[in-house]
Amino acid sequence: MTNLRTDLTTKKYRCIGVGVVWDRDRQRILIDRRLPEGELAGYWEFPGGKIEGHETATDCIKRELQEELAIDVEVGDHLITVDFEYETLRVSLIVHHCMHISGEPQAIACSEIRWVTVDELDTYQLPAANYQIVHALKESKSLNCG
Length: 146
Ligand SMILES: Nc1nc2c([nH]c(=O)n2[C@H]2C[C@H](O)[C@@H](COP(=O)(O)OP(=O)(O)OP(=O)(O)O)O2)c(=O)[nH]1
Ligand SMILES: [Mg+2]
Known about the structure:
- By secondary structure, the chain is α+β, with helices and mostly antiparallel strands.
- The protein has helices spanning 2-10, 57-69, 130-144; strands at residues 12-22, 29-33, 44-45, 48-50, 72-85, 89-102, 112-116.
């Protein structure tokens, strides 16, 4: 009971807009590597960030991708929302498919960027919450391929 109360009062909660950015021929997705210090240091992720008070998830994703990677995207369909609890943080990741419109991705707020296929995602170290996203991507891919 004490632990539960401590968790409820001290655990930070953040709502994050996340983009699965497809290249023009819809073969590859953009992932970035988090900086070597801070939360989830060195993990690979889908780009995104905190939803500000006034924003929709779509607004947030468009803004974050411009700020973090200097790319312009069209935010499309919702893929999945993942609620996940880390040791010191609770997050909701609101994930949308995006189309890359323009701009060569720049590693502004991350250490590295790569375009990868859905199958290649398995070889990268991703935050625990992201496995649900990868699963949803594989499911939508198998549906698309009939
Ligand atoms: N962007 C992103 N965040 C993720 C993913 N998976 C995952 O667990 N997270 C978590 C890690 C962080 O705790 C949180 C997002 O934090 P962030 O550092 O990107 O947030 P931000 O860009 O708004 O940065 P800041 O305001 O905290 O400086 O969501 C993911 O695939 N992409
Ligand atoms: Mg971010």
